[in-house]
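Whether sequence alone determines local backbone shape is best considered at the level of individual chains. In the encoding step, the backbone of a single protein was reduced to a row of integers, each denoting a local shape. For completeness, the protein is quoted in full, as a sequence line and a line of structure tokens.
***
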Amino acid sequence: MRRQLILSLGLIALTAGCAAGRDYAAPAALDLGLPEGYTRGGGEPLADADLASWWTRFNEPALDALVQKAIAANLDIAQGTIRLRQARESLVQARAGYLPQVSGSAGTGRNFDSDAADRNSFSVGADASWEVDLFGGIGRSVEAARADLQGAGYDLAAVRTAIIAELVTNYIQLRQSQERLRIARETLEIADDTLQITGWRIQAGLVSSLDQEQARASRASTAASIPTIETTLAGSLNRIAVLTGDAPGESTRALEEARDIPVPPLDIASGIPADTLRQRPDVRGAERTLAAATARIGVAQAALYPSLGISGNIGTSALSLGSLADTITGGLFAGLTQTLFNGGRLRSQVRSQEAAADGAFAAYKQTVLTGLEDVENALVALDAAQERLDQFVIALDASNNSAILARSQYRAGLTDFQTLLQAEQSLLSSRDGLASAKAAQAQAVVQLYSALGGGWQTMDGKPE
């Protein structure tokens, strides 16, 4: 037995540090096809503190409270947290492979004999087994489980960033709908006034009933737009309720009071494309998936080599409890096992894991490129929104002056009703367009912050 133990320890020493598979190294930026800079934007990347709570830069206390509530109560985030717990337990299970497995047993019985007195019997025993990690299969399993755990943390972070972005977007849409509803109702009041004016002019014989019918049609068209806007507004309220973990209804009642469209910050530096590898949790999660797939190649390769198992047992039996310690027996065993033939199954598993790693690399690169695409699109959207906003400010000023002149001239009989109608419709279009442009600018900022990976940098249990 001593020779077997010495031989086992010698094999362990000879194979120490010999791990199957290749050591993982994160792909270089060159392998991922990263450009040196974005076509727009640039500058120093935002600090983690700025990215972590980017929504606070809108200076909307109601929005800040909603985001904090969503972080605490959103059910998608809750599911991500549960998946993170599962991954953490998987790592505990993988690490258990390093340790011996020990089981114990105990028994008692009574023997009956017609020719002798009845006798009791007692037994106690323990068995232990330990698989030595000769070629690093267990180590690679732990490595893969650790990468899975980190990946689950980044997946949770990605869910968090997406929920925050969706919540802020719906908040902006809510305020936009409230603004559009206000504009539509004010326009309806003007349409009522115009309809009354045409009635007076018909009674005075100054115009035909055609003007009144056109005024009626214009008023009805404006009134018909209000239910559509109210539907959009209700949808935003209901979505905000669900995102914050509540049922639609009472939970968002306080938001029904109209507020202005949030004014976004515009001094946002996008940094360089390489920053996405650090800032975006989905990119970092995909990299951890690649690391786990690479480690599992080593797990599959270790199965090709011999395995060393050490087992032992100890036990005792006696006719009385007091005599259990009188005679103790046991044994220690060591053995090597090697698969000689299995139809190529083990080598096929190695090739399968290599293919999985190649697929994980392709997915990682795709995630990186998609992240760059998101940033580029957000930068373009922000520039376009600013340009549209500038033009709608001009359009509103011009259409407002035109409507005032047209109304004054129509009252004085200096212009026809068609000119007045066109001026009022142009004013409505400009006011509605300006509200949409303000909302689009705010949403473009949300899109950019989301593309840059903001919203998770200071979360509890952030993966490292």
